[in-house]
Structure formats: structure tokens, C-alpha cells
Design brief:
This protein has 158 residues and is α/β, with parallel strands linked by helices. It has helices at residues 4-7, 22-35, 42-54, 111-124, 128-136, 140-155; strands at residues 13-14, 59-61, 64-65, 68-71, 78-88, 98-107. It has a single domain, classed as Mannitol-specific EII, Chain A (3-Layer(aba) Sandwich). The protein has six helices and six strands, in the order αβααβββββααα. Strands 1, 2, 3, 4, 5 and 6 form a six-stranded mixed beta sheet that branches. Helix 2 (22-35) packs antiparallel against helix 3 (42-54).
């Protein structure tokens, strides 16, 4: 199973999302991913993620959302992270606002890897202490360090 450290770098972290709604979050992530060269077609990326959202919100509760989709346009998985200081109504399962976001885009032909990575992200984000620490971070590097530290903890079977 791929580790977060193998999938996420500091360039794919949005320290403070400017978006105020779900479509805005998706567009902001898409802009970042396109600007980094991971995906060429921004509109297609937004479309596949929003199609997935239309099947049921990826706001899993506890202030977390994991918008995700599979795309035939990419050859390698893309993981990005974003944080909203205000919180965003993401139609989360618990009715609360989402503050911490992972965006996951996986090649169309790798559904098992997609599910395993979603499970890994969900496992890492279970820690209430980690969620609060991520909300309090003052830099992109601090966010990355915390996520990688928690990922290593998970890798060690804890």
C-alpha cells in the first residue's frame, strides 16, 4: 500500500483554502493540480470529482472531507491536502463543516489502489489530536510534517 509520504508533497498542500463552498474547493484543488502539471484538463478533473460528489458527499464527518475520483487522464495517483480555517459546508455525514480536505485522483485502471489509499487517509485522520494540530499549523511545511509523522505511525502498525 502506498504511503502518504510517497503521494503527497508540500507543493500539493493548500494552507488556507479561499473557497467558500464545495464546488469552489474542487475548483481550487483542480487549479493547483493543473498548475503543478499532474493533470492537463482542469474542467474534466472538476467534472469527474463533482460526478462522484453527486453520488454522495465525501464529507466523512469530524471536520474531514476526502473528495476523490478516478480519471483516465492520469497515469499516477495524485493526492493533495487543503485546510479551511472557516470551515466549509461540504454536506458532511455528521452535518458539520469540513476544515481538512484530502483530494485523491487515481488512474481509472487502479480501483484497488484507490480504495486502499482512501482507507489509509481515513485511518490517519481518525486521530482527534492530529485534526486539532492540523487546524493550528502555521505553515505548509508544518502540515506536511504532521501528516507524514502520522503516516509513519500507521506504517509501524500502531
Amino acid at each position: 500500500m502506498a504511503r502518504i509520504q510517497d503521494l503527497l508533497d508540500g507543493d500539493l498542500i493548500i494552507e488556507d483554502l479561499a473557497a467558500t463552498d464545495k464546488p469552489g474547493v474542487i475548483r481550487e484543488f483542480a487549479d493547483l493540480i493543473v498548475s503543478r502539471g499532474n493533470v492537463r484538463d482542469r474542467d474534466d478533473l472538476v467534472r469527474v470529482i463533482m460526478e462522484r460528489e453527486s453520488q454522495g458527499s465525501t464529507g466523512i464527518g469530524d471536520g474531514i472531507a476526502i473528495p476523490h475520483a478516478k480519471s483516465g487522464e492520469i497515469s499516477d495517483m495524485v493526492v493533495a491536502f487543503g485546510r479551511s480555517r472557516r470551515g466549509i459546508d461540504f454536506q458532511s455525514l455528521d452535518g458539520g463543516r469540513a476544515y481538512l480536505f484530502f483530494l485523491l485522483v487515481t488512474p481509472q485502471d487502479r480501483p484497488a489502489e484507490h480504495l486502499k489509499t482512501l482507507a489509509r487517509i481515513s485511518r490517519i485522520m481518525r486521530s482527534a489530536e492530529l485534526r486539532e494540530r492540523l487546524k493550528a499549523c502555521v505553515s505548509r511545511q508544518e502540515i506536511l510534517n504532521l501528516l507524514l509523522e502520522e503516516d509513519r505511525r500507521y506504517s509501524n502498525g500502531k
